[in-house]
Amino acid sequence: MEKIIIAENDPNFKYDIASQPGAESFMRCFTCGTCTASCPVAEVNEEYDPRKIIRMSILGMREEVLSSDLLWMCSRCYTCAALCPQNVKFTDVISILRDMAVKEGYVQPERLDKALELDKVIQSIRCRIINNKLHPEENDKVEILKALEDELDTKW
User: Fold this and answer.
1) pTM of the full predicted structure?
2) Domain range for 87
3) Is the CB of residue 75 less than 8 Å from the CB of residue 122?
4) Domain count within the chain
5) Residues 54/90, Cβ–Cβ less than 8 Å
6) Closest among 73, 74, 75, 57 to 65, alpha carbons compared
7) Are residues 84 and 19 in the same domain?
8) Helices (H) and strands (E) in the chain — how many of each?
9) Residues 15 and 37 in one domain
10) How distant is the alpha carbon of residue 123 from its chain centre?
11) 116 contacts 156 by C-beta, under 8 angstroms
12) Gap between the Cα atoms of 51 and 31, Å rounded
């Protein structure tokens, strides 16, 4: 693990986040891990750790957080927020961090819209796969694969 030098970090980063609607309680996080343990993304991506993103934010690691590709992995399902014993609304914090990443020039503004579009596409494909499993006689495989292929061809 890389050494963190607190003096080199941004001491106001946590306050910048906490001042935004939806993130008022994010500094209450005591890293219990409920968010990570319940996260469907963390279940399939070992690098994705909501607890770590919160901790890095509290420690003032602005550049590392806002430039991280992991900000865009959150599926925005709100499972973490529903289960957090400290009432940290991690999904709202992720939205705030994404907005900050755009405003501070870490990513292009179009990324926000594309991430929202992708969330809808993924949920649509998920529902279609479930429907295909429940009703195999309807055999929607070609349309599902086409939707997936179209999304894979969409550039960010």
Assistant:
1) 0.88
2) 8-103
3) yes
4) 2
5) yes
6) 57
7) yes
8) 9, 0
9) yes
10) 15
11) no
12) 6
On whether residue 40 sits in a domain, the answer given is yes
Q: Give domain status of residue 91, yes or no.
A: yes
Dist CA 101 CA 150 (whole Å): 27
| 1 in any annotated domain | no
Claim to verify: residue 97 and residue 27 sit in the same structural domain: yes
Provide the residue type at 128 as one letter.
R
Structure tokens at 95: 């939205």
Q: Which of 115, 121, 111, 112 is nearest to 150 (CA)?
A: 121
Length of the chain in residues, anyone?
A: 156
2 lies in some domain: no
Tens place of pLDDT for every residue, the chain, 156 residues?
577 777 789 999 999 999 999 999 999 999 999 999 999 999 999 999 999 999 999 999 999 999 999 999 999 999 999 999 999 999 999 999 999 999 999 999 999 999 999 999 999 999 999 999 999 887 788 888 988 898 888 877
pLDDT for the residue numbered 62 = 97
Whether residue 132 is found in the same domain as residue 71: no
Joined together, the tokens standing for residue 131 give 């429907």
Contact yes or no for 55/7 (Cβ under 8 A): no
Give the single-character DSSP code of 44: H
